[in-house]
UniProtKB/TrEMBL annotation:
One of its GO terms (molecular function) is 4 iron, 4 sulfur cluster binding. It comes from Fodinibius roseus. The keyword Glycosyltransferase does not apply. PROSITE patterns: MOAA_NIFB_PQQE, RADICAL_SAM. It catalyses: GTP + AH2 + S-adenosyl-L-methionine = (8S)-3',8-cyclo-7,8-dihydroguanosine 5'-triphosphate + 5'-deoxyadenosine + L-methionine + A + H(+). The keyword ATP-binding does not apply. Residues 312-325 have a biased composition (Basic and acidic residues). This is GTP 3',8-cyclase. GO terms for biological process: Mo-molybdopterin cofactor biosynthetic process. NCBIfam families: moaA. It comes from the Bacteria. Residues 11-233 form the Radical SAM core domain. Its cofactor is [4Fe-4S] cluster.
Length: 333
């Protein structure tokens, strides 16, 4: 794809090149760190941006310099005809990367098609390798489906990562077994600080498994753990166990140590633009589209909004008029 493209910068001099796009708030799991056991009040279909509306927004944003999109949810494949939407946006010549985050329960039938499309990478959410703990965390008995997807991804040509949210009293026993997946597999296992987005007010200040604690836990098992290059806009700090094929990462999602190089924006499942994970939404794209705004007008609004970005997640949280109590399934995981 062509590298001859414009790049837009925010008010802190950070390039904005990466869109995380939530296509649905619905999910077939009920993970404790993401939503209440009863679920959330899911959006009616008309509240979601249509695929045509999403394609239009993507075209505008790629004209402004977005070169990577990650499709998220909820569980993206809960939404019908998602594979056709991914196929369509893959024809956008200004998109260099299309990635996907999934819980893996519905992915298996689409892996070969995703290979044909040329999807860049898949992030597979997997918080435990124990079926009983999986059911406790997700409140659903879907472990076998996810493990099947894991093995199919290993056999495919699609690069993939495992994302694990580290939770006190839930999956601490799984940190080392998950890290051991990198011994013989060329993949990345990333451990994520729990965030306050479970639809019930989150973990607040009670987070115990911070970046440092996760790292020290790994170093206790792997004293020769090596720090490796993480990339200029990486959310994870990456490591390698000597003589292991894969690598490990830790994402300080609650400590927010990577904000200074953040190149990401989000559009959540109800069509709201978020220039930071911790803001409450800064632009109602759905309303603007349906009020008949032209592409030029929308482009101008995007440019203006990108110049109002908070310096980091803490500033974004301070600007909020409400507390952090959204579900990650609405925001987009």
């Amino acid at each position: 794809m062509s590298s001859d493209r414009s790049v837009i910068y925010d008010n802190h001099g950070r390039p904005i090149t990466y869109l995380r796009l939530s296509v649905t708030d619905r999910c077939n799991l009920r993970c404790k760190y993401c939503m209440p056991a009863s679920g959330t009040n899911f959006l009616p279909r008309e509240a979601l941006l249509s695929y045509e509306e999403l394609e239009r927004v993507i075209t505008i944003l790629t004209d402004l310099g977005i070169s990577k999109i990650r499709i998220t949810g909820g569980e993206p494949f809960v939404r019908k005809n998602l594979i056709d939407f991914i196929t369509t946006i893959s024809n956008n010549k200004k998109l260099e990367k299309i990635a996907l985050t999934t819980n893996g329960t519905l992915l298996s039938p689409y892996i070969s098609r995703l290979q044909q499309i040329g999807i860049t990478s898949v992030n597979l959410s997997l918080d435990t390798l124990d079926s009983d703990r999986f059911e406790s965390i997700t409140r659903r008995n879907q472990f076998d489906r996810v493990i099947k997807t894991f093995h199919l991804l290993k056999k495919s040509s699609i690069p993939f990562k495992i994302n694990t949210v580290v939770m006190e009293d839930e999956n601490i026993k799984d940190i080392i077994p998950l890290a051991e997946l990198t011994r013989y597999n060329d993949l990345s296992v990333r451990f994520i600080e729990e965030m306050p987005f479970n639809g019930e007010g989150g973990n607040g200040s009670a987070l115990t498994w911070t970046y440092d604690k996760i790292l020290n836990h790994l170093k206790d098992e792997y004293p020769h753990l090596e720090t490796i290059f993480s990339g200029p806009h990486s959310t994870s700090t990456n490591y390698k166990i000597p003589n292991y094929r894969g690598k490990l990462g830790i994402i300080a999602a609650f400590s927010r140590t990577f904000c200074g190089t953040c190149n990401r924006i989000r559009i959540d499942s109800q069509g709201t633009l978020k220039t930071c994970l911790y803001d409450s939404g800064v632009l109602n794209i759905r309303e603007i589209l349906r009020d008949g705004a032209s592409d030029r007008e929308i482009r101008t609004l995007f440019k203006h909004t990108f110049k109002q970005r908070p310096k980091d997640g803490f500033e974004a949280e301070k600007r909020r008029k409400d507390k952090l109590n959204e579900s990650m399934s609405v925001i987009g995981g």
